[in-house]
């Protein structure tokens, strides 16, 4: 097997299977990829487009080809000396009857062997949920659905099991309740069987006895006459919508015997008594901290590792786990037990959002993150700090929304905590009340006071979560908590200060190890864990899924792992990030596009050019808003789209306008408009201002849709769309140069470059599902196989082959000298001259071998009025790289563009190095 060198992330689903990927391996190998990085492959819900809704973690998904196709893919990888990294989901599973673990819980409640696998509050204070789970699947209220006859009891004759049918839902009935159905059959054998089903409630081994009784029922059904009798019995429970009374009562009494409570789907946010993945009713959290759950949910993964078929793991949403550190350490130990002593290092990467100043704890034993922070670091580098304030002021002036992003975040956190995450928030609040009542000194603290304090504390949390354990908080966590505490104090009346200090003590400042073992300590531990598992989804839902769609000073700063409050950073800061990564996580993944990104990597690279041209942008948007006035709809006291929604749309068009779109071609325009409509619908609903997912404002959405349709179709909108297209084209060369620079930095900075499917060509995608469209691999394969001059690539840069060339050439160099890239030290280089702030350079050095990387930045003025994404030599003027004294005699050979050699000097001329190609990579040995 080859060491980890470069990965390609592939999204598997029924339309792109394991055998489809097998056909692409030659292409990936030729490109220089060492590992395929696969989306989850264990069995997910039928038709799943992503694989994160697992229903059976014990087998490869048959819709992807199952075990045979998986083995074919692994064999193909091995034949090409390539590896496989597998994305796994330890946090949650799908809520469906197709999930055997969940089905068992619905059938048997706390008696199920899987009752403790899921994060269920069995001892709910709600009497209707005591020992039961809330099942919020009904379209309307329970009584209405009961009366409408939509709930029907059905017998599965092949399995001998009764279940409830509700549209696409199949909800099992608990076997001890079968007797109440079978007693209506008027058949002695079935009545006797019903009595024995009734007796299961007091049986010593009800599950195995139920299985035997179900087989008896199957046998009786096969005899024939009983079939009509059972249908007759079921008629006593399935209400006729035209009738009322007894049938409704019988069905209700039958459902009252179940281990679940059927409810309107809208009750979930307030009453659900099991922890969801974020606020998704279809995903239930697993308790991976339990040893039995860990082993059962990872058994197949461990088998694949033991068989030598999986070479690395990506852990989904690590912060959703009760104890990420303990999980990672346990996983590392198990992997080391499985792998041969002489095996290559087994990489484990965690999906972790790092806040400003936050680092991945080395004690976790992970190799690094999945690379969101690198996306952010490159983005910060490519934004002009001088554009931040003008763009924020323009946004506020035009829309009335806050110029300060954190104000949007705080408002959004309060919203999600009191709405979509209300049940999680209530659970922590109730636990804190129990803690308060357990001590005479605090028993007068009220629930409302706790809720006020907790709400503001979480609203001001600067990171996803902290990790306080028995010994209390780490120094880093203490700093985070104190920042949140101060924010809460500033927001609350002074009278609540004492309460906040008490919350501080209960939520980690007072180490649990100081408490005597017992129920109180256990309560404190549960509460602390729940708090940790509340701040993470609150951050994700408030920032990524709300504030990012409310705040639009410049959308290129709104992406996963980004903080729009930090608009730009210096060259020195970027170097510092790389030095730190080289020391702490040299094998961390470096991503610039993912399946979760808000904008494609080149969409995101074009828009920062606006930060260099804020005055131009301000004037353009004024013109566009005037031109768009006839397209807007007047709705009561507002227009549709609102100024904020309109401005975000303009930015999205500027950023994603396809390089090959013919504005005169109506079919092309309509195709692009349809993509934008998908983005627009999601943006409006995620913002939760004019519409939302739970209660879509169809009138407002349709008005926005008509606006967008008119913009791309109506003759009256020709001046507006022409101006937008021209502006996008004006930004495109500098944006493409940013894209090439971003790509080379990913390839050469400390870490492992990760490529999202299809991004070898330009990636002007929008948020999912736009970023998961089928990839035109035949075009990419043909382009890689065709010899072409660098000059031709530059002349035809719009087709994307220039980016693929950059990737292939650099990956070939990584393959030729892997240790230079993986273990080489990182040395920032100083620039001098008139354009010294518009270029960045660094060295990587390993045992005397060197590579030099040089990329332009903030080069909009340098490529102005040019048709190509390259700075003309003369525009660099006297800009030079200062070389360290011990390297001034080295000779440098270019890797990109025609092969050239540069003799060693004390300084290297930037214009000369960048003459053959827009970015430069040189080597010296």
Description of the structure:
- Residues 11-489 form the Glycosyl hydrolase family 13 catalytic domain.
- One of its GO terms (biological process) is trehalose biosynthetic process.
- This is Malto-oligosyltrehalose synthase.
- The protein is α/β, with parallel strands linked by helices.
- The protein is 45% helix and 13% strand.
- The chain is built from 34 helices and 29 strands.
- The strands form eight sheets. The chain has an eight-stranded parallel sheet. It has a six-stranded antiparallel sheet with strand order 21-23-24-29-26-27. It has a three-stranded antiparallel sheet with strand order 6-13-12, with no helix packed on it.
- Helix 16 runs antiparallel to helix 18 (447-459).
- The relative contact order is 0.08.
Query: How does the helix and strand content classify structurally?
Result: alpha/beta
How do the strands of the widest beta sheet line up side by side? Answer: 16-15-14-5-2-1-20-17
Q: How far apart, in Å, are the first and last alpha carbons?
A: 27 Å
Bin the strand percentage.
Answer: 5-15%
Helix content: 40-55%
Please tell me the overall pLDDT: 95
CA-based gyration radius? 30 Å
Tell the overall outline: globular
Q: Work out the helix count.
A: 34
- The unreliable regions are none
Sheet of most strands? 8 strands, parallel
Overall number of strands: 29
InterPro entries: GH, GH13_cat_dom, Trehalose_TreY
Protein name: Malto-oligosyltrehalose synthase
GO molecular function: (1,4)-alpha-D-glucan 1-alpha-D-glucosylmutase activity
Domain Glycosyl hydrolase family 13 catalytic: 11-489
